[in-house]
Structure formats: structure tokens, C-alpha cells
Amino acid sequence: MIAGDSGIIHALPVRRAVTLIPYQANIAGGCTSDEIFMKNGSTSSAAGKVQGRNAAILINSMARASQETRSARKLKQSRQLQQRAEQLMPGGVSSPVRAFKAVECDAPFLVRGQGSRVWDADGNEYIDYVGSWGPLILGHADAGVIEAILSAAVNGTSFGASTPGEADLAQLVVEAFPGIEKVRFVNSGTEATMSAIRLARAFTKRKYIIKFEGCYHGHADSLLVKAGSGVVTLGIPGSAGVLDEISQFTLALPFNDASILEQAFSKYRHQIACVIIEPVVGNMGCVPSAGGYLAAVRAITKRENTLLIFDEVITGFRVAYGGAQELYGIRPDLTTLGKILGGGLPIGAYGGSAEVMNLVAPLGPMYQAGTLAGNPLAVAAGRATLERLRDNKAEIYAQLESLSAQLVEGVAAAAKDAGVRLSFNRVGSMFTWFFNSDPVANWSSAAKSDTAAFGRYFRAMLDAGIYLPPSQFEAAFLTTAHSKEDIETTLRAARASFAR
After folding, report:
1. Secondary structure (3-state) at 352
2. If you classify domain 5-139+394-499 with CATH, what class do you get?
């Protein structure tokens, strides 16, 4: 397996698309009607007389009519569902990036998935490179996973008690990750990272933690400091409601810079409980560790008796069966997992040596619990997924590597031919195309990406039936269900999109 690729295409500036309705970009970006008027100056006499909610409705309808003229996709049902959801849920979504605010267009409401494809409420079909943000490495509605879920469900969906399947899944995790001797299941990646940090503090009896700028480890208070992912997409500096008294113990450092890490340990000697890191960042786009960076992080933390936590919620079972630590040959003290571990159902986990894990209740004083943790459905889906990956490792990961390389490099070549500035990063089957004239190795370089250009590309690809992550700062994923035909279709769409 190739550990990772990165490439850069230098060419002419991106051509800017003509906007038919002057207010569309602002409206779709989520501005209020008053903000739109201030940003664009005078309006038509009719619109200028309309105030408040009526103005927003009028201009929204103009923008949507404009989008309809440029898109062959049907949008009526998704729009109606969005409007209803907005009356009941903040932004009409259960997670912010789903609002499509960063890409300035209507979000399709998905109703079905099969293999590499998804369908929305209007019947539009898309080749999917989101894959539920990574969990669906076998594709949508995989027959083996669905059968496992149904078989478990007929016996009960949850008991709040121990079940045989939990130890079966734990055995698969322990076998895949040599640094994990014991594992605790939780319900999400956020719970896993939050619990791992609490455990590190309990083990070391220290207060400070180190994370890296642009890395997202869930929405626990201490981790929403210079986070990536949706926080970056929405332009939110951290999060409201996070107390200074909590965030003061989180040190956010630049990714891929071992010298600054050394400086932090020099300043906070014997005070740092843990370093938590995405060994391949997925939440400022895909950004791999450079050279011997991970080895340096491991050496520094070991020397300082600080626990090293690999956040492998995304990379676990993705970049290799044993995650990034198998790929790079680095063993952390604690590992957090999620996504693929649950085969598409909610799950998370944290694990490490027996010495550290034995501090977790009921054996030790570090308390953590969860009503639905280790529930039978997620465990069944996870077992079915991991057993398939384990039993077909050589074939599956070679296929993912080959098709991902064809896709990512093919799109980059199409950009170069069209005179579009583009760079890319890829590790196995996770990847990002950055609308950026420079290589991306950390948050400061990722932040230079042309998000407007990405938005135009995203919308053109969506209209062509290609479903990409709706943010420049999210990784895309390939699955075993994607075919060579899917790749060829995507490359044709990319060429047409860049030619606009």
C-alpha cells in the first residue's frame, strides 16, 4: 500500500462563474434580508418596500428560481423538507455541515442509498463520496451488514446490560490494534475522545492537554479550541459557551511542526497529561503527517511521560485495517475509534494498555458510563463490517488504493488541463482536493484555499450527480462499492465542471 500522495497543480486563476441574480450568493450563504441589502446596496423598488420576513421570502424565491434555471435536478421536495425542518430544528439540521451553508446551495434530503449511490427526495441519483462521513467503507446498505442488523434487532434493540457481541467486537479491535489490550465502547467519537482525555489526566495526574490547530476531536468543551471541520466551515472561532476556565488548559499548536511541540513541553514541563492527534487529519481536509513527524511526537511524549492519544475515529480501519498506527508503525498509548467500527450505526471506543484502562470504572476511579453504549445493533453492524475487512484485507485495501489514486489524480489532471489551481492530499481511500496554489500541510496553509472556487465546483458536480463533502475542509471517501465506471463518470463530470 502507498502510505499517501500529495500533489499540486500550478496554472491560471480559476474562472469565476456569472451569477444571474445579484443576491444569490449572499442569500444562499445564510444572510438575513437586511444584511443582503447592506452588502449589495440599492434594490429594486418593489423589493425595497418589503420588510423583514416578506423580504427574505421574496429574495429567497428569486435565488431559488435562478438556481432552478442552472440545474437539471429537481429540488422541490428537498426544499419543502428543508423549510419544514427549519421550523423545528436549528438550521433544519442535526449537524451544522449538512446545512450546505459553505457551498451556497440547497441541500438534498437523502432517502435511500445502495452501494456507491444515494437518492434524494426528488428522485435525483448521485455517486456518493461522503459515505456518511466515512463509516460506510463497504458502501450503502451492504447486504451482510443489513442482515446482521436485522438479525440482532429481532432479539431486541437494547438491554442496558452486557451482551455476548460486545466481547466479540472487542476481540476484533484488540487483534487489529496491538497497542490496545482493553477497550471501552461508547456512543460517538466525541464521547471516545472526551473519555480518553479524562483517562489521561487521571493516569498522569496532570491538567494540560495538547491538540493541533485544525484538528477536530468532537464537540467536548476542552477540544473546541482552534478546531477544524464544521467549526472552520462556519467561520466560528471555537464555540460560544466554552469557558475560559476550561479552555485555558488546552494548548493548540500548529500541525506538522515538532519544534513548536518541543517548546510547549519546555514551557509546561511535567504539566502536560496528553497529546491528542489525528495521525492523518480529516477535519481541515485530508492532511497527512509529514516525514518523521509522528515518530517525533511519539518520542517527545514518551520522554516526557505524557500519554499519546491517536484519534483514529476516521482513520481506524480506513487507511489500513489497523489504522494509521499500522500504516506508519507508531504505537500510541491510547486510541479512539468510531465510524467504521459501527458499520454505519452510532458507536465510539477508546482503548489502550491494561495498566491505563484498568483505571476506568468499575475497576478504577475514572468514571464514564452510557445507557446505549455497546448496544446490540451497532455491535452487530460493526462485527459484520470488521470481519469482512479482516477476512479480505489484501484485496479490499489494494482495490481502495488503486481506485482512489485513479480518481484523485484524474481530477487533478482535469484541473490542470482547464487552468484551475488545485492541490490534493490523499492517504489510502481518504482524500481532499484543495483549491489552493500551494501544498497543504497544516491549518494555515489549508485556510488559504479558495472556498468560493470550491463552492462553484461543488455545485457543478452536484448538478452532474456527484455528491462530495459540502465543505472545502472535509475529507472525501471511497468505498468498496465504487466501480471503475463510477470513477470514469466522476472524471467526466469534473472535466465538464472545470470547463465552465
Report:
1. strand
2. alpha beta
